[in-house]
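FAQ: What does the model actually see?

It sees only this:
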Amino acid sequence: MSSFMNYKIFSLFFVGLFLISFSLTPLVKRAALRLGLVDKPDGDSLKIHRHVVPLGGGAVLILPVVMGLLTFPFLLTEKIISLVPIMAIGAGALLVFGIGLIDDFSRVRPGIRLVVHVLAAVGVSLFAGKWSGILVLTAVTIGLATVAIAVTINAFNMSDGMDGLCAGLSLISCIGFFFWGFKQDHALLMAIAAVSFISLLGFIPYNLYPARIFLGDAGSGLLGFLIGTMMILGLSCPPIGFGNLIAVVLIAGLPVFDMGLAVGRRIARGKPLFTGDRDHIYDLLLKKNWSQPKVWMSLCAIQTGFVIFSLKIQ
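And it is asked to produce this:
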């Protein structure tokens, strides 16, 4: 894609997105505190923080992400990205962010939240064929793509139980998908990965332990939606097959595997799937008296290993 871009313009573009995210975070933090958009421990056994923390990460990320995606195609010297899929992704991101924000203010029933996630995923899945020119749009491919995105949304939501973890794992996944798109000359995949990465980069300093602001359901759901969308785009790259499926799941990484373990654990215990617990991978390490920074670095290292391995087997 190098022949289709001006590197100076793109450098300014990404610096601008970073500054928006970095400067917006403290403003959103103060606004969330005033609005009462906060996470209170209140003795809840599912929460490991001990102080009131504002929920506003989703509001920080949605602006640079949507702005970046809508602007990116116009920065290219040749039209290689259509606005149609960009609009579908933007609309889905706003839907997932919106239901997450409502959930952050007042609990939303899991069924309603899932319906909204599926609607956002369907909108993305319907355009998979247009993006790649390879995938055949059938009820099966649309259904599988929709399930994959909806599952990934909830997987990354589950990973947001410790300071900076969901954001850190997402950053690494974005790097993986960017290089996956680069190897396949997939401009749209590279665009989503780069915009998501830069937007996260401005936010994560405030989210690392001890976190001054949380992603909230709006933020973790948004990241899961973006990673899920990148998975579908990555699957459209040749050679299409089981190897590609394994590779994109590895790039999404730990949140997907941890969710699989959580589902199996809850089924074995006869508990509802949407019931939370403190037996996730990061919880087990914390129970061994590992510090949060040590757990964060260890799991991010594993996530990095997954990404490197997936790029090697591509």
